[in-house]
Amino acid sequence: MLPELLLGTDAGGFLIIRDSASYSGRHLLKSFINAALNREEYVHVLGFEGSEEELRDGLKGSPTQRLHFHNAFTDPLGWTDHPAFTVYQFNFEELTHLVKQTSHPKPAILIIDSLSWILRHVSPPAVCKTLQQLKKGGAVRAIIGLLHADMHQRGTVGSVCHLASSIITVAPGMKGDEAVAKITKRSKSGKVIQDEEIFNIKEDFTVTVQSKLSHIGPKQPDPEEKEMDPTANLTFNLRLSDTEREAKGKLALPFVFSKEKKTALLHSGPGSGRILYEPDANDDYDQEDPDDDLDV
Amino acid sequence: MYTELNSILSTTPDSFTQGEFILVSDRQSDASFLIHHFLSFYLRARCKVCFLGLVQSFSHYNAVSQRLGVSLAQAKEKGQLIFLEGLTESLSVLSQETNSGSQAMDFLRDPTVGLRRLYEFIRSSVSSSGGGEDGAEEWGPPVLLVDDVSVLLSLGVSAEAVLDFSHYCRATVCSQLQGNTVMLVRCDGEEVVDDGDDEGSERLLKGLTHQCSLTLHVQGLPTGYCRDIHGQVEVCWRRRQGDGQNTQKKLFQYKVHDKGASFFARGTSSAVL
């Protein structure tokens, strides 16, 4: 499902890449930027966690003339005199103004790197409100945000993720450069699709999906499988014919002590040994009188 | 400076990656030997070094560096090293009413104001490298070393404020001036399963891990104390490297000697083989 998401987020879509300290989701975010640029989209990046040089350095092979970087990295809190964009400006009006500064023939895609930086300084309800307004606002076609899930309380992560139409949770894979992506996609009809894929990102930010881990969700039962008789191709017989049943009834089981067996055992043939037994005093053992001194 | 660690990180004082944010962390162990390594490394690399020594006195760092073959006092005289001695600075803030000294440690009076003053002190000291007096030596890219940021938490600064501070340091030193930053953070307790509500040093460690480009995490041996192996260090490159690898992890065991440290692959200590 990852390649489909890279192909294009629907209008009004909001995609969140969730990562943790063990695996950075920024490479995947760059893949999304790269894919959008190659689709001839207009991309606005709100960068809190990396400089413009860093971003452009990684995207050397792509057409970056439609990439607009808004520098919130060098001074996000207004500690110096001339901040370009501070975290307190993260609201609907400012962002719409920012995106509309450059005129485009079509709505742009807004990349937020990262939501965690904003959530550390702006209250979660205000962030959610801004995101919701941006989704409905029309100035941006889609929003893609990076979220460090281990930096926030579970409730905060949950409420932001509820707004998203797609969530990609990335985690390190088993082998060196592999990673695992858990994808939850909510389509407009309300259907929720979940998937888990192993992927790796090449140097030019193309994503290749190695394999699908599992299909979570209701699996469609195979119609042919229902009809099939599980006893069809057995190497043994489950049912008995009449003659077989008769033969089975005649068979003497080994624990049944028949007359022939008894005589065969008792009257052994000539030449075989016999046991002669003469009882002596020790055989007359009385448990109630072990010393044999009671006059009973 | 430990040459074995240099070969692990594939750096030398003559050629090292610029713009790196190195996070040194430890858990129930002591990673300060790595701070001494980086201090002597960058002094040998002729970088302009700004050192925030919040844990020990200057004479302590000087004594250790002397053993590693670098004189801090000389470097300070030449203007290569700017040393903020947290212990004496904080004492002067607390004892004197007047603002006589630097305002870097102003957060001690009111921890809620954040570390803006401390950042401004760093910015002014690292960016003054170009405009020196006549005859002053030219120094290389600026380097910021902090030993250690967890002390700021104990002084009443919130983890959020420390993360803001480190962000500004990274933006200025690593990104703008193409220098390097090394920060030490210490965690005491056991590693906890992440549930997002952890406090203080754990949160700081996670936040800094998200910011940094290289982590060196020092731990004790999981099997307990050993005389010949002092612990293990996990090296993790988080940025995309030239060879195209995403994140790379390597684990080494180490032993700290009197005048250096040796690093070896797991199970290849001289005591084992």
UniProtKB/TrEMBL annotation, chain A:
Organism, scientific name: Seriola dumerili (Greater amberjack)
Pfam family, one: Elong_Iki1
Official protein name in the record: Elongator complex protein 5
Keyword hit for Nucleus: yes
Superkingdom to which the source organism belongs: Eukaryota
Subcellular location: Cytoplasm; Nucleus
Pathway assigned to this chain's UniProt record: tRNA modification; 5-methoxycarbonylmethyl-2-thiouridine-tRNA biosynthesis
Keywords recorded for this protein, A-Z: Cytoplasm, Nucleus, tRNA processing
A single GO BP: tRNA wobble uridine modification
Residue span of region Disordered: 265-296
Main location: cytoplasm
Record family assignment: Belongs to the ELP5 family.
One of the record's GO molecular function terms: tRNA binding
Acidic residues: bias regions: 280-296
A single Gene Ontology CC term: cytosol
UniProtKB/TrEMBL annotation, chain B:
Location in or out of the cell: Cytoplasm; Nucleus
Involved pathway(s): tRNA modification; 5-methoxycarbonylmethyl-2-thiouridine-tRNA biosynthesis
Gene Ontology cellular component terms for the protein in this record: cytoplasm; elongator holoenzyme complex; nucleus
Organism of this sequence: Seriola dumerili
Keyword Glycoprotein applies: no
UniProt cross-references to CDD domains, sorted A to Z: Elp6
GO biological process: tRNA wobble uridine modification
First-listed, main subcellular location of the protein, grouped into a coarse class: cytoplasm
Entries under InterPro entries matching the protein: ELP6, P-loop_NTPase
Pfam families: ELP6
Designated name of the protein: Elongator complex protein 6
Family as reported in the entry's similarity comment: Belongs to the ELP6 family.
Superkingdom assignment: Eukaryota
Keywords, sorted A to Z: Cytoplasm, Nucleus, tRNA processing
